[in-house]
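Inosine/uridine-preferring nucleoside hydrolase domain-containing protein
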Amino acid sequence: KKLLLLDVDCGVDDAQAIMMALAAPDVHVLGIMCTHGNANIENVCKNVLRVLKVCQRTEIPVYRGAGASILEEQLNGAQYHGKDGLGDVPDCNAPGLEHLQAEYAVNAITRIVTEHPGQVSLVATGPLTNIALAFKMDRTFPSKLKHLYIMGGNMESRGNVAICSEFNFAADPEAAYIVLNHFACPMYIATWEYCLRHVLPWEFFNEWVNQGTEKACFMKKITAHSEKFAKGKQGDREMYFGPGFVSCDSFAVAAAIDESVVTEYIRYGVSVELQGSVTRGMMIVDTLNALQKENQAFIMTKCDVEKLKQLMMSALK
Ligand code: BDR
Ligand code: CA
């Protein structure tokens, strides 16, 4: 089985991605690390516990991670994901935070990867704070990873939270910088433009959430807020989301569980702009190889959308 560690800021698309990983037959999720991002860290932890409960997979350990980015800059995704990160749907049976592991995410990442050297694929679908801090604690840990999959950054200077920056990198640019510049393992990046290029039609979305299973009903409830926002009277929103439904984090998990989902990559050295007044948090794609980086990232450019859809459908069965 493929061994996966997920590091999430559980908003609605993180929940979708987690459910996809849990449903994959040849995948073993070793643990789920929580980070600040779409919601505050308490809500992120609660959201992951809720997802595991719906999927009847409460045996998977959940770890609390960083509650803020390295330089204390705070973003949140409330506008799209709702204040609680999962569409603000009341859930009186939500599991409490006592179900979290006592160990912190940063310690758990290095421990688990060290226990399975060369075997773990780490999938990051939120700000990279935990992963950067884990590296600061144990500089050998990236070399023990099999792969690192990241949803974040941009390849054409296009952003979703600022003109030039994507949410996960903008939420902690220093963390993204540390990871992109210091990790020697194979690094696969699902950028914001890659997600936008593969917007799914609303007809598919309707079919997906109306499968009638408990998981699909849960998905329908938690996505109602973001669906309304994405369809809302457009102007610049159409520019952000395109004419359909985008599940950004599912792209990263799909690539990790089935590599044939990605049919084309470009390979370049990558970094992150930290200084710019407009470009802070923007991913730098070194097309001229000016930075002379040894580890060229695999930047995803084409997706087999039919395979992605199948994985999404199975996730809610
Ligand atoms: C990313 O930001 C978050 O809102 C989503 O969960 C996704 O990880 C997209 O830019
Ligand atoms: Ca996310």
